[in-house]
Amino acid sequence: MDLSYIINQLGEERENYFNAVSPPIIQSSNFAFKNTDAMKAGLVNEKDISCYTRGKNPTVDILRQKIAALEKTEDALILASGCAAISAAVLTNVKSGDHIVCVSNPYSWTYKLMSVFLAKFNIEVDFVDGKDTANFLEKTKSNTKLYFLESPNSFVFELQDIQAITEIAKSKNIITILDNSYSSPLGQNPAEMGVDIVVHSLTKYIGGHSDVVAGAICASKEMINKIFSNEFMTLGAIISPHDAWLLIRGLRTLEVRLERIENSTKKIIDYLDNSKYIKEIYYPFYQKSTQYQLAKKQMKFATGLFTIQLNTNDEIKIKAFCDSIKRFVLAVSWGGYESLMLPSCVFTNSTVPNNLVRFSIGLESAELLIEDLDKAFKFLD
Ligand SMILES: *Cc1c(COP(=O)(O)O)cnc(C)c1O
Predict the structure, then answer these.
(1) Least packed by Cβ within 10 Å: which of 146, 215, 286, 351?
(2) Whose CA is closest to atom 5 on ligand 1?
(3) Which pLDDT tens digit goes with each residue over 274-286?
């Protein structure tokens, strides 16, 4: 299936809704059946037959088909947030007494799930430096059920060798989950490298307009059916038809947005390289990164998210630098049309150094963004 077919056509049965080019928002909680036989059939397959919107909604279903096709998996589920997707995918595959090996420095709320929430249910988690594949094997025990990966991971974008880790997992009957939000399905397809469950925060590049929070789980039909009839339906963290419609709309421009963002980010990284104000650049496709070869092997391109480490720890100067920046919005999240920055000096109780600044490049011109940074760096003199 080619990309433009998936984005423009797949799942869109326009003859069923007055040949409208843009799909309708089916704002209905429940769906009528013609007769008792049809109702009986609907009640045993709520995932595929419209019965009740917590199970299947036709607008959400268009998105679901597209996301599965983009990730090259048999099926997918759409949830209320990336965190809902991660939690449901993890909870399906563990029970009390099990053990998980999780990459260190995952997304903050994934860390909370792994370090606090699961402990309540007597599920043990070891965190490992994911740059060295051997660490996964070393921490694996007889009760290990799950490897949780996030490649690149959050804030410093370290990679895991996906193929090598899934080979170990398969030999030991361990399920692998990978958070692929950074790359989007266009930049990396973990299922092709043996990952069992790919999760996404759709809030980021897929929505792309900083107006929806949502998530997705992509996996085999068998795994999706298992998650659907357990965590998906019992926890009930679904999105509204209207949010699904916004995400379908966001998808229409995903490819062009990412092309523009990738090109601008390359220009900005080139500008930052060798800057006297910067100690380190954390970006998967930064040519001086020790993981550059691995990045090129498993990712098609890097996106617009990177972190710099400034050459000073002087918090007054760091704040002056950040506060003088005009074109980057000071905000959490990433992946939208607007460029953002998130400095580590705003974190309380954090173990990360105070001189990191994460940037998410949006759709503005690279030249304007560089001009803005150039002026702000003077505050570090
Ligand atoms: C934002 C984010 C999430 C969480 O997604 P929400 O949609 O905010 O729940 C998960 N993983 C990564 C890598 C993220 O950046």
Answers:
(1) 351
(2) 82
(3) 899 999 999 999 9
Task: Provide the token pair at 364.
Answer: 């503005």
Give me ligand 1 centre to Cα 275, in Å: 31
Q: DSSP labels for 17-67?
A: GTT-SSPP----SB---SSHHHHHHHHH-TTTS-SBTTT--HHHHHHHHHH
16-47 burial, b at 16+ Cβ within 10 Å, e below that, comes to eeeeeeebebbeeeebeeeeeeeeeebeeebb
Q: From atom 2 of ligand 1, which residue's Cα is the shortest distance away?
A: 201
Residue 83 alpha carbon to ligand 1 centre in Å: 6
Of 260, 248, 249, the C-alpha closest to 337 is: 260
- Alpha-carbon distance 332 to 329, whole Å? 9
4 half-sphere exposure, CB direction, 13 A CA radius: 1
Residue 269's SS3 state is helix
- Residue closest by Cα to atom 7 of ligand 1: 82
Residue 209 CA to ligand 1 center (angstroms) comes to 15
pTM value surpassing 0.90: yes
Does 80 sit in the ligand 1 pocket, CB within 6 Å? no
